[in-house]
Amino acid sequence: MVRPVISRRVGYKPEVSYFKPRGIPMFDLIEVCLTVDEREAIRLADLEGLSHEEGGQEMGVSRATFGRILRNARTTVADAIINGKAISVQGGHYEIVITERRFVCAACKHQWTEPPGTGRPKGCPLCASLEVDRLND
């Protein structure tokens, strides 16, 4: 019996969904597919710096599932970069759930929100402290 695939929560949907090596015509390229949920795993782990546990919570999957999604995504991206392939971002089992992220400064306790897809804040907007934590909702 095959287990059903749970929809993964995706908190950011950029307009760009295709990447290709510069200077190579499309008809000369091999294309690989990165699913939307795999792109989300890369965003959460590599851009926002979340752990597998935190990333899994954001996507509504277990830590182990998040790790598998991320490993597959990194393999696809590495194949494209190393072997000069185009990347098409499409498909997967996901639902778009866009929510603002909340942060707190450990130094001055200031709280603020950031839109999804912008990465971790560089510092507190009030006191410039680098000790910034994400609040879990």
From TrEMBL:
Signal peptide: none annotated. It comes from the Bacteria. InterPro entries: RNA_pol_sigma_r3/r4-like, UPF0251, WH-like_DNA-bd_sf. The lineage of its organism: Bacteria, Pseudomonadati, Thermodesulfobacteriota, Desulfobacteria, Desulfobacterales. This is UPF0251 protein HRM2_31170. Belongs to the UPF0251 family.
